[in-house]
Design goal:
419 residues, alpha/beta, 6-stranded parallel β-sheet, 49% helix, binds beta-L-rhamnopyranose, binds manganese (II) ion
Length: 419
């Protein structure tokens, strides 16, 4: 299903009056506070968030899945869905591919399709956490950390194939998330497992084109419940430092133990030039993969505060980091869910952009904790949604993406097309 300009125009005409009022009001308040509203809008317009190819169908839990209707089956249909999202919000202009779940039959055709929708290829994701049909050797006891050389070689080979596909579509990075670890104390020699993983990553690093990055994604538990090989950002940073300049760390918001100060991790990684990118989601307990911003929007905002502070001019679209949503679950229409996630990310970004950083610095230097909190929460509590809507309007997207999606019965049309 393609979204045409006249559908967007009809929707915007309907909503423009109330939007203009809101936008005029917030613009004047922010201008009085010294914010350059035009600059904020420009930053919001260029900032794109990648959609993972696996989030377009209803997710599941290990207890089951309740598939929705009109879901994409082929990678081409998944690209169509991302094209659709991008047409509605002009903020989802990238895809993160997962191999082998989404190995395209015709790479060239997929690239052409992406170009026609204005979609770039963000990080490639390899998968050595499952055995695939017909695979020679099993990853039951790990992939890059495996005690068997032949199994490590098979996993390295897979990552090299992913890089090859990535080169053809114009991706510039590879994300490696490993399920490698142990379920029981004593099962795995901790140091040897790390060293084997490092050696295997060295082989992958060697095959990486000069303008590529490899990201290691840490996770404290699951599916291994006693230890994982890359359990936290310390190990991830250690690997990145040992591998070289093209190796960086990827932060998945759900891959931390409860109450972890993720924004501080982000700050440290930026400081060391080792932040590679994000997997955005939200969680109450662990790797819950819930809609971004649905539970802890303040934490998300604090992360964006560190990003805006750490990236020159606060222009995240020029940072070179990978920005991907890694959320999918049982309950919502996946496309509506992704629209909500993108919105939450951009709200956090906009709020971080309007922080009065000069005043904040002054408060920090004077150890004025009360003032610092006032400044931080003032920006967070400012309703910036009209700024996002204005950025969309100027980019030819819908003022209100979810309403547009429902008004135009997008899912209904997809069901008619796909069944
Ligand atoms: C993992 C991790 C990876 C994702 C898989 C499906 O928990 O977040 O990024 O590729 O799940
Ligand atoms: Mn992830
Ligand atoms: Mn995860």
């Amino acid at each position: 299903m393609l979204i045409n300009k006249s559908q967007i125009d009809t929707h915007n005409a309907k909503h423009e009056k109330s939007h203009s009022k809101r936008f005029a009001s917030i613009s004047s308040i922010l201008s009085d506070e010294g914010v350059n509203v035009k600059e904020v809008i420009e930053k919001l317009k260029t900032y794109q968030i990648a959609i993972p190819s696996w989030a377009l169908s209803t997710g599941g839990t290990r207890f089951g899945r309740f598939p929705g209707k009109g879901e994409p089956v082929s990678f081409e249909q998944k690209m169509e869905d991302i094209g659709l999202l991008h047409a509605v919000n002009r903020s989802s202009g990238a895809v993160s591919m997962h191999i082998p779940w989404d190995t395209p039959k015709d790479v060239k055709a997929v690239k052409q399709m992406a170009d026609s929708f204005g979609i770039q290829f963000d990080a490639m994701n390899s998968n050595t956490f499952q055995d695939q049909p017909g695979q020679a050797l099993t990853y039951k006891f790990g992939s890059l950390c495996n005690t068997e050389t032949s199994i490590r070689e098979q996993a390295i080979e897979h990552n090299l194939e992913v890089i090859e596909i990535g080169k053809q579509v114009g991706s510039k990075s590879l994300t490696v998330w490993l399920a490698d670890g142990a379920n029981f104390p004593g099962q795995q020699h901790q140091r040897k497992a790390f060293e084997r993983t490092l050696d295997a990553l060295k082989a992958i690093y060697k095959a990486l084109p000069d303008d590529w990055f490899v990201f290691t994604e840490h996770k404290p538990f699951e599916p291994a419940f006693y230890s994982t090989v890359i359990q936290d950002w310390g190990t991830s940073l250690l690997l990145a430092q040992k591998l070289g300049a093209k190796a960086k760390c990827l932060v998945d918001l759900g891959h931390h133990l409860p109450n972890c100060n993720i924004e501080q991790i982000v700050s440290r990684l930026i400081m060391e030039g080792k932040l590679g990118g994000f997997h955005f989601n939200d969680s109450k307990y662990a790797d819950d993969d819930l809609t971004v911003g649905s539970l802890r929007p303040y934490q998300l905002y604090l992360i964006f505060n560190e990003l805006v502070d750490g990236v020159p001019g606060g222009d995240l679209s020029k940072s070179g980091f990978g920005w991907m949503i890694d959320a999918s679950h049982n309950t919502k229409d996946p496309l509506e869910d992704l629209l909500q996630s993108v919105e939450a990310i951009k709200i956090a970004y906009a709020e971080a952009l309007i922080i009065d950083r000069k005043k904040l610095e002054l408060a920090q230097e004077k150890n004025d904790a009360v003032k610092a909190q006032e400044i931080m929460q003032h920006a967070f509590r400012t309703d910036v949604r009209a700024l996002l809507a204005e950025a969309r309007l100027q980019s030819g997207a819908a003022i209100n993406p979810i309403e547009f999606y429902r008004e135009n019965s997008v899912r209904g049309n997809l069901v008619r097309e796909r069944g």
